[in-house]
User: Fold these one by one.
Assistant:
Number 1:
Amino acid sequence: MIFKSYILEQNIQSADSKKIFLFYGENEGLKKEFKKKLRVQNKNQEILTLFQDEIIKNKNILLNEVNNKSLFSEKKIIFINQVNDKILDIVNEIIENIQDEKIFLFSDILEKKSKLRNYFEKSKLCGITACYQDNEITIRKIIMEKLNGYKGLTGQVTNLIIQNTGLDRNKVDNEIDKIISCFKDKKIDLKKLDLLLNIRTNDDFNLLKDEAINGNKINTNKLLADTVFEVENNIYYLNSINQRINKLNEIENMKKENSNIESLISSLKPAVFWKDKPILIEQSKKWNKEKIQTALKKTYNTELKIKSNSSIKKDLLIKNLIIELCTTASSA
């Protein structure tokens, strides 16, 4: 039986209504949040954490946990991590024996043809929810909810958090924890926030991105050789590029109303971060409507390849995209 993730976020008890529940998808931050909520909901119960590999090597581990009743609580909660289709036979074997126990499975992306996914979607005894990647709307909502009551929580502040985390819920939570610890008076100071967040960890890529979008081939080639691309940050890199191209598109659409680029950029809502203004002014001179549409198509195709092919070299796709954008920016 399929459950929508946003419904479970509001009421995690729905997951408790099924004997076995499967959370799958690319959003590690959301899966981590579901685990946290399940632990809180079952704080008085015995909670065990297992991995599929150890169960495959010795399936009696899980069978014994299901058959042996807990001495410490009324029911037993079992988390099983890193599952895939290999665990389906074991699920079939134990599901009828489950009484007071609750089993929660956590998996990466499962394709539509996955036997495990199909089983859970059709079974009345089981539940399943897809944990898809967050978008800018959901991340903004998380920031606004967790920092509710903080003075100085402007669009510029939320943009800074989003730019620094690349729509990664795990990173958003980490940055929000820092903000809560630093601004105990619940008054956010933008300059202090700039120093607080992990801006430096992404400085190299942001510099590379800006030089490429500005069409500077010499600096782009040099920075491509010097920049370390971290595998887990590929979506961040892509989102960072997309945000800048979309911002240039917004500027281009407003040029008819105001020919003064500097005042035009100053009028954008939400406001452009002060450090980005001079860079954006230079970039806007290199991009017209036709170039922007070409860039948007390239970023879309790159994102499609990254998300649809797990074996492809994603860092190479990002590097190729950067080279193509630099070439487009520098063309007449």
Number 2:
Amino acid sequence: MSQVVFAAKKRTNAGSAASRQMRRSGRVPAVIYGHSGEAIAIDLDAAEFVAGIKGISESTIVKVAIDGQARDAFVKDTQRNILDGQILHVDFYEVEGNTVLRARVPLLIQGNPIGVRDGGVLETPLRDIEVECLPKDLPERIKVDISNLRTNQSIHARDLVLGDGVRLLSGADRVVALVKFAKEEVSAPATEEEATPAPGAAAAPVAGAAPGGSGKE
């Protein structure tokens, strides 16, 4: 997959009014944050950004070309209008090629486990893991093949194939996927109506009571 490139411009106008005007003209206000704490206010073409972010994850490194000067960065946050889905603001986080970074990488679960075909139930409690590596070694996603997973078997974070130069930061014993035995159906307890005898129905005899009498001699 080729690297996504966003053409951007530095912006000097700040404030809500300027941002609204920008969105009406088809642009999106954004900020790119650097390691030193530097924050550069920019704006992007809205249509280009929407098309570019399809299929990328939080760990995908994109290129932001600010007035022709390219910077590698993550798309860290995208704010949208909850009513119409319009993108309101974007935060980028710049990465440096020779600086080790930490990032969360999504897991891509693949396959139909043997245990599920045998009647087991698949659980995938972990959606992503945290890793540490250089930007060039950072995977966009990590594939997890669960095809050979049998009932009562599991895959842990330590079992994942991360690639050269990538170090796992998430707990090694965290469960990525497991197949459990299907729970047996339990009979529902009797309701109060079922437990109460209908009017006129004979009550069960009490142990020790004389049949047909009051118990008095």
Number 3:
Amino acid sequence: MNHTTRRQVGQRLTAMALGLAALGLAPGAFAQNTIKVGVLHSLSGTMAISESVLKDTILMEIEAINAKGGLLGKKLEAVVVDPASNWPLFAEKTRQLISQDKVAVIFGCWTSVSRKSVLPVVEELNGLLFYPVQYEGEELSKNVFYTGAAPNQQAIPAVEYLMSKDGGSAKRFVLLGTDYVYPRTTNKILRAFLKSKGVADADIMEDYTPFGHSDYQSIIAKIKKFASEGKKTAVVSTINGDSNVPFYKELGNQGLKATDVPVVAFSVGEEELRGVDTKPLQGHLAAWNYFQSIKNPTNDAFIKQWSAYAKAKGIAGHKDKPLTNDPMEASVIGFNMWAQAVTKAKSTDTDKVIAAMAGQTFKAPSGIVSKMDEKNHHLHKSVFIGEIKADGQFNVVWKTPGPVKAQPWSPYIPENKGKKDEPEKK
């Protein structure tokens, strides 16, 4: 290359750099022509039964936004990782997503133990996590938006229903869960709530099993014995993941019918019942903020969108029998609110997006206009209680008159008195 040509090339490069600077872009900016979105759900291990479909839900929403031209003039790019139902691995994968992959946001986690693993990392690195599953409350972080239910939006209304005449007037309760933070804290809240309603300790049985537990024979036998001691008994289940399949099978095997001892579940929806014969389970209950069977035009469109996507992508189980559920709806609400906040902030900067999230609304498939509380990073949500039908769908038997504001700090835990209903500024 002669001297003149070198000089011309140099001039062109300088002109290009100046042109980029005029547009507010660094010379390397063309390499950053996408907005990266982290997807942090277990695709293997005990929680894959519940979480895999949430990964596909986010990918579907990314595809829909990209079809409309993306955000801020850029396409969204998914960065999918598999933390494999391994709680410490959630923290490692989060650090990788934020520090190495430079994602603008993370959609992920199911169990509270995975969220608790991720929390210090997103706070340290000032990342952004959207968490789409009902949980025990007792947490607020400026870096997390909680789009699932707090206890007053699921657990408390469900137990109130069981105690009501319509719900069977239960007087004794079995609190049965997987052995980790969500079931134990939820049951601590429920125990205090039941005590406030005059239920004696002798009328509450509490039992826990490890993740992946599969032998429920002796536990169901214990429940039958407890229920035979007189007063009307109900089971409150916070069993999580693939243990729900053997639990419900054993319920059917031992003939524990809903008319005798109703079970209300907080982590069992349409997806978890897929591998179970639901005929013996008719009448047992689940409490959620959404069911596939809810009839309205927004839900019809959501089910149609998911069915077409699942069929096109050949998603296991869903291409032939597409199912939607509550955490999928919560994922869709969170994703669309994040996209709206990015548009409003004209930026993916974490602090700007957090500010723009306050008061965001989205027409939810549940039939309400879902709202992100201006202060507490939780959604205002309607509560539904559904009965399991023979086909594995739910018949809604009770619902709140309208959306309920979340209480992240339960009033049934005395040490919460005086706690502020908004994240601390750090």
